Amino acid sequence: MIRYASYPSLEARVAFVTGGGSGIGASIVEHLCAQRARVAFVDIDRAASPALVETIAARGHPAPLFISCDLRDVAALRAAVAEARGQLGPIRVLVNNAANDEHHALEAELALEAPARRHRARRALLRRRRQRRLHQPELRRRRRLGVSAQPGRS
Ligand SMILES: NC(=O)c1ccc[n+]([C@@H]2O[C@H](COP(=O)([O-])OP(=O)(O)OC[C@H]3O[C@@H](n4cnc5c(N)ncnc54)[C@H](O)[C@@H]3O)[C@@H](O)[C@H]2O)c1
Fold it and tell me: Which pLDDT score is estimated for 1?
C-alpha cells in the first residue's frame, strides 16, 4: 500500500481546481481530497468528472464538488467560482491546471516531417559532392599553378 504524507493545513481548506476531471488535474483533486480538503473543480468532461467524484467518495474521502464549465467562457467561470464559494466557503487554494496542450500534436507533426527533411538534407549533400567532383580537375590545375584552390577565386 502506498502511504502519503499528511498535511494538516489542507484539512477543510477550500481548493479550486481547473480541468480537474481527468489527467493531472484529476490526480490533484484526488490528493487534495485525500488530505480532507474541500475541493471544487471545473471541467468540460461530463463523463470523467462525475465518475471521479464517485471514485473519491467510495474511498471515504470528502467528495469534491464538480461544476461543469468551459474556462473559455469567462462569465461561466465567474459563476462557477461563485458557486464553489457559496457551497464550500472562501477559496484558499487555486490550482490552475487546465490548458489546451498541443505540444504532443506538434511533436507528432515534426516526427512526420522528419523523413522529408532527412531526404532534402541528403539530396543537398549529394549535390555538394557532385559539384566538388566536377571541380576536381580545375582545383588540381589551380594547385599546380599555385593560385587559390577555391574555384572562381584567384
Ligand atoms: N501531460 C504532460 O506531459 C504535460 C507536460 C507539461 C505540462 N502539462 C500541463 O499540465 C496540465 C494538465 O495536463 P494533462 O496532461 O493532465 O492534460 P489533459 O488534457 O489530460 O487534461 C486537462 C483537463 O482539462 C480539461 N479541460 C480542457 N479544456 C478545458 C476547458 N476549456 N474548460 C474546462 N476544462 C477543460 C480536460 O477535460 C481535462 O480533464 C495542462 O495545463 C498541460 O498543459 C502537461
Answer: 61
